[in-house]
Amino acid sequence: MTRSLPFAGASLGLPGRYYTEPEIYQRELKTLWRSSWQWVGRVEDLAAPGDYLTCMLGEEPILVLRDEQGELVALHNVCPHRGARLLSEARGNCKMLQCPYHAWTFDRQGQLVAVLQPKWFPDLDKSQISLARARVECWGGFVFVNPDAEGESLGEYLAGYPDYLAGWGERWEDLREVARTSYEEPINWKFIVENYVEDYHFTIAHARSLVPLFEVQNIRTLPTGRHIPILVPYVSEPPADPATFRHWEQHRPSYQGFIFPNMMINTGKSGCSVWRVTPLGPERSRLETIHYQTPGQYAAEPYLPESWAEVMEEDFAVCRLLQQGVGSRAYQVRSLAEEHELGVSHFHQVLAQYL
Ligand code: FES
Ligand SMILES: [Fe+2]
């Protein structure tokens, strides 16, 4: 499925305008953010009939709800009368979906059931009108939506990634949210991804935070389909510093990695930290970090919120530097480390399929 990069030339990487120009940003919204599977939430957030969540996938408002049969339904959150956004709350429970503009009302399958002043619409056949469908599927308790009604299943899209994550050995369905933080940064979303999928920066940016914990030389980047699993082994000797020792594991590595286009997973001894990147503009992004634990992990060691703050700031600091350099005529990517920046070139190849 890989074809050569339209933007590959004398230098590696994307031209600088891919990180700054509104035109490129719009193209991304109209291609990859419209037609890929994206992580939107957890099944336990949608436990009862009528529970819903809303989200923006690219520029498209989407809602996911549980119907009376217990199935998840994904719909475009846009009224077919004149196009108003239907639901505005991030989460809630509904019996019906009623448009706030002229009160057209839809059932939980998105079927139009009532119209205000029906006599004013003599030719309207309600049975022919419903909300546009998106697709929803789950893996490991994570809910994914594809705004496109057609195309490959989530299983095909994930291309074996769940087999890699099974190595962690915990039941992914048992994870429950224990904390979340949201960051907004003046950084193009692709710089956040690129920094995440390479470990060449570890010894500089994370000299104090991650290097004492992980065997940095032996991190393995394992591109799989559109995605980038990253296996991170711990140092073999127990770290002396108690704060670092708390995260250290003897018998298994940290299963980390990127699921294109918006999800980053980081397993650890006492839980799993899952990050979601959302583009907010050509030079602005949101990163939500959500921390999960199984009941057993929570009982053994409840999550401590300070454990990730330092690493996040170390990464945002270097990404801000990239955003500051990218507008320069001198901006270029001259060479990439064979293994330890492999994720960057793989990500660019995947982007090329969409752009
Ligand atoms: S736009 Fe929704 S009822 Fe008119
Ligand atoms: Fe980093």
From TrEMBL:
Cofactor: Fe cation
SUPFAM superfamilies (UniProt xref): Bet v1-like, ISP domain
EC number: 1.14.12.1
Signal peptide from the UniProt entry: none
Key word Flavoprotein present: no
Entries under PROSITE patterns matching the protein: RIESKE, RING_HYDROXYL_ALPHA
Keyword Cell membrane recorded: no
Domain Rieske: 37-145
Enzyme class (EC, first level): oxidoreductase
Domain of life of the source: Bacteria
Keywords, comma-separated and alphabetical: 2Fe-2S, Iron, Iron-sulfur, Metal-binding, NAD, Oxidoreductase
Pfam families: Rieske (PF00355), Ring_hydroxyl_A (PF00848)
Gene3D superfamilies cross-referenced by the UniProt entry: Naphthalene 1,2-dioxygenase Alpha Subunit, Chain A, domain 1, Rieske [2Fe-2S] iron-sulphur domain
Any GO molecular function: iron ion binding
Protein name as annotated: Rieske (2Fe-2S) domain-containing protein
Origin species: Gloeobacter kilaueensis (strain ATCC BAA-2537 / CCAP 1431/1 / ULC 316 / JS1)
Organismal lineage: Bacteria, Bacillati, Cyanobacteriota, Cyanophyceae, Gloeobacterales
